[in-house]
């Protein structure tokens, strides 16, 4: 097994976890600007709490290597939804950040799955 994989997984996962934890806080205590964005995208008033809960869960799961793949997968789903929401609503200025986080989530997921496969051999 390549000894750099666990280190690379951790190097990518920790900032990703921080992003999701910070995002969870931001969605739980939403600004007027983001509340207006959620409304413009067609989501109900309470939907930001769902997003916050999902981001909090993803952030927590990303911290430990044993649960990292689950956190990365959940984070990828959340960011895919965010990217699609912004693209469908032609809000291209808000599409870049979730698309980048989606890609990083997929990278962490791939690394985590490769590490699990190598450990099970």
UniProtKB/TrEMBL annotation:
Keywords: Membrane, Transmembrane, Transmembrane helix. It is a multi-pass membrane protein. One of its GO terms (cellular component) is membrane. Pfam families: DoxX_2. InterPro entries: DoxX (IPR032808). It is found in: Membrane. The chain crosses the membrane at residues 46-63, 70-90, 96-115. The keyword Membrane applies. This is DoxX. It comes from Edaphosphingomonas haloaromaticamans.
């Amino acid at each position: 097994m390549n000894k750099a994989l666990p280190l690379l997984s951790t190097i990518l996962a920790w900032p990703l976890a921080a992003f999701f934890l910070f995002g969870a806080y931001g969605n739980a205590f939403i600004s007027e600007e983001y509340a207006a964005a959620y409304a413009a995208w067609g989501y109900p008033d309470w939907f930001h709490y769902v997003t916050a809960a999902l981001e909090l869960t993803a952030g927590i799961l990303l911290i430990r290597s044993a649960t990292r793949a689950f956190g990365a997968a959940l984070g990828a789903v959340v960011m895919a939804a965010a990217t699609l929401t912004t693209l469908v609503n032609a809000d291209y200025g808000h599409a870049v950040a979730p698309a980048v986080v989606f890609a990083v989530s997929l990278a962490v997921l791939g690394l985590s799955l490769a590490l699990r496969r190598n450990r099970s051999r």
